[in-house]
Amino acid sequence: MRGMGKVEITFLPAGRAVPVEPGTAILKAAHAHGVEITATCGGRGRCTSCRVKFVAGPVPPPTIMDQLQLGDDLLREGYRLACQTPATEAITVQVAPPLDESAFQILGADRDLSYLGGVEMDAGVRKRCVRVAPPSEEHHQTSDLEELCRAAGGRAEEVPLEIVRDLPGILRAAKGEVTVASFGEALLAVEPGDTSAMAFGLAIDVGTTSVVTTLLELASGEQLASVSSLNPQAVFGGDLMSRIAFAQFNPPNLRKLQSRILGLLNEQIDEVLRRSGVLGKWVYKVVVVGNTSMHHVLLGIDPSYVGLAPYAPVLRHPVVLPARALRLKVNPGARVCLLPIVAGFVGADAVAVALATRIYESPTLKVAVDIGTNGEVLLGSRERLMACSAPAGPAFEGAQIRHGMRAAGGAIDKVWLDDGRLRYHVLGEGPPQGICGSGLLDAVACLLDSGVLDWLGLIQVEARDRLPAGLRDRVEWRGEERVVVLVPKAESGRGEELLLTQDDIRQVQLAKGAIASGIRMLQKIMAVPDAAIDELLLAGGFGNYLSIQSAIRIGLIPPLPPERVRYVGNAAALGAQLALVSEAERERAEAIAGRIEHVALATHPDFQDIFVEAMNFPQE
Amino acid sequence: MRGMGKVEITFLPAGRAVPVEPGTAILKAAHAHGVEITATCGGRGRCTSCRVKFVAGPVPPPTIMDQLQLGDDLLREGYRLACQTPATEAITVQVAPPLDESAFQILGADRDLSYLGGVEMDAGVRKRCVRVAPPSEEHHQTSDLEELCRAAGGRAEEVPLEIVRDLPGILRAAKGEVTVASFGEALLAVEPGDTSAMAFGLAIDVGTTSVVTTLLELASGEQLASVSSLNPQAVFGGDLMSRIAFAQFNPPNLRKLQSRILGLLNEQIDEVLRRSGVLGKWVYKVVVVGNTSMHHVLLGIDPSYVGLAPYAPVLRHPVVLPARALRLKVNPGARVCLLPIVAGFVGADAVAVALATRIYESPTLKVAVDIGTNGEVLLGSRERLMACSAPAGPAFEGAQIRHGMRAAGGAIDKVWLDDGRLRYHVLGEGPPQGICGSGLLDAVACLLDSGVLDWLGLIQVEARDRLPAGLRDRVEWRGEERVVVLVPKAESGRGEELLLTQDDIRQVQLAKGAIASGIRMLQKIMAVPDAAIDELLLAGGFGNYLSIQSAIRIGLIPPLPPERVRYVGNAAALGAQLALVSEAERERAEAIAGRIEHVALATHPDFQDIFVEAMNFPQE
User: Fold this and answer.
1) Which domains are assigned to chain A?
2) Contact residues, chain A, for B143 at CB < 8 Å
3) pTM score, two decimals?
């Protein structure tokens, strides 16, 4: 024991020892001292992400939450939830490895330019090489800036001080030849010599769970590099509400969230620039989409009331600000354009989805579903467009699932039934490490088909004798918990069997229920029966990989003929790219945001009934 | 000796020991390690301000500059110029106390409101209390910012992010009652509750040598507090050219200069706020005047080319920027308005002098002389107005004079002849510590009248037998130098006699020559004989205290009848105050700046002759 009655916690594998007041929760102590422990549920005992293993010191008795989340086996092995467990004596704990591998995922840099069909290519960025004569003895009652404006146009009053500061040297560096970059009326940069050929931009999709940054050449729309990473804010809460709660009425925590996301963006920017060989100073425009909370936090705007009824955003208009205001590592004068917002839980990402899917100009009724931790549903046509939020939570991204993981190497991404047995495919073809969202959907569909699950989602342990022979011995009690053994220990790449627990099934039901009830509510309000839906568009990183058949089987989406369901990729990111390469598209985004009618589900009298029904599985 | 062949310099009185490469000049070592040594000439061996006394370690042989500046006595006592003396072994040196006492001087807070006669009182700052209804369940497809704009006017796009960040809490703090402060179209601040009665402003005059900050109530124009301090940039050079040279092509040095002046302004702001009990957040407008270099450095603009022919400013227009951009400790949204610039050496201070003296609307020809380290001369009327720079240097502020000091307690401020003897008056009535500018002028006038100086400025040591008895034994050789003993050791408050040296006389000649030649040049170019000058206005802190008779006697100003010479106080600061309380006056400043014709003295063919003549004293 050191200090004034403090106890010391040593965190492995880093070996950091931190002194804390006795009784401090281990998670709180870790975060207070900069030790990173993921807390997907925001430290509320609702998930297992903050689990630690006691290595030295007395292991405290488990709490109710420990028991519920970790189960007897992990408890016996010395695991506890860091959020629930106070440190009362000196201890050493092993931090569980984060759910993610934390490396950048390379995405979609191979996309062709067909997405630009019909798009008016004009990013709004202009570069012009002009010659400026600095003041001379004969013509001395003037200034550098006045001579620049004389040559390049524009008003001295509107040139930012940051540009003026370095102007004298720049004007004289290349004998008065300078290149002026502008965006609309705004002067972005003055550069020595002729640099007019260099003009790039970034499209950024800030999701609750994943963040995707893509570098494009502005003139051609060509994608030069794209990276995806987990949102590092997740250590402060996996879902939006946990994260808002973290920042609520707590400016230092808000700053933590903001600096985490800005830090990640700068890492991603470094990475796409490095890969493409483009210099940051040649990036003049950045388009960002994201849900309202991500948008607000990125800008450092207090999101407290976004998390409280009536969930009002602080602002909704399309914000444009210089990159220097966010310290992004591109040209400091580059314009960062955030797409507009519709409502507290229908953000710029939903607007980007509408933009990319062209639902706003469709002559027929369409549904666009952006499946994500904080998903949205759009229903409508060129006549009318409605939207609601569909907060699926992170289950489809593999979080809050016992053996869940992202769609990375080692993940089971497909599951099917073969002669009454569960078969699966593993990304990268090695032994399975866990299951990702698309595998989870398939697995649940198979379990429904084979009678392992009833329509209420209960694992039928009591009735396992009636199951196919190949599944019978996979359905068990583990302590008080019903589980399905997805992968026996011998086949597993994890050294232990991979399970689907009853709680995992509930998480899937909550997730799919959120989306399904969103679709149903909009259908109800607009009086659109399934038959009237011309097309259902599946968007989002996860939306691209799921099986349409499984999605229909579990009731995630309405039972449409499969040919009327279409994958549209990461439509939010695509919408950002359209607004990046085309100011006409960016203006259209504003018009779309003004047209979308937001439906606040929670306050609608029919919502509870519809949601409860949507949690169940379709009875075939 | 410590480190890799380094030697250690210990600076007293602080006792700081710093390791340096052998051969490093003591001044350079001091500045590199944050030890403050004043270098009025910029470290060029042209003054004595950086003198140090060797206390331990070998005293190095004096350089030529040491000999010229310090004289034999000081050399024998172990004094050397820190800028000229390299450290070759471990030494301990005593830093000479700075020329200034570094305290704030209280100024002019007792001024009445008569200066506002005829001024249209409207500072442009508006505060309005409005009621904003935050979004509700019934009216939820909106945002806090939209509701603010609905109630208070203005466009969401134009509200700065810094205001949006805190908006949610502010809107809900006083049940939707907020006060909105604006300046023109710009929203400055949103405050909870009704704060509409609180609106203050600052007028700031950044001189090369002195900085004056005055707090005013915007509605009444009442002065609440005013402070004056030495410009702390002086340690990097007393005159403008030294300071520009320090920052030239050296961004870190520019940042040093900028942070010094901004640091001082924040100290002064603290002081005037403390004295008046006003909170910084109630200050919404700041008007700054200063010469071009001070203006540029304050804004962090590269002044390199202001110091090189053709001495062009980087910008000249009236800059307006939010206080947060300079981190001034007032309301972060407050507008800092810099008055416009005419030319590289005729800055916003000259424009402010024109504004305050009303010379721009005078039906008769007037001269306005702003006497300062970097003074300016204006000549003209409502018909035509010309200006030139008149860089007197800091001699009139007591710097670069052997026993010079500012006009503070202990300074000889008046000198006169009484029966062939020198008499003097001391500020604060104690024993004399040194001589300030007005005393210096009087002294030189007396020495001319009594024949101690001839018209070329030479101290008549060889002819002292022909001088009045009371002066005869005051005129001596000291080594190679001619001196006049102004105060014998017995009367001195400094423990040593106070001298006027031949070099001091030269400094006065240079200073008065700069101003006199400026006046003469403008007279010549505009063909205005002395008789046509209706009035000569003496401005500047020093201009207020000098004897008009002495100024005419030494040829600082033309030989006008004394009733046509008038003191106008610190007209630059006054001009700033006018522009602070009246937007009409601030607009007028811009019109005036556009009208003033700048005369570049250095390139005028007659300048050399006129300057040489102006260095001499009038022959009576």
Assistant:
1) 7-95 (3.10.20.30), 125-192 (3.10.20.880), 200-221+229-338 (3.30.420.480)
2) 312-316, 341
3) 0.81
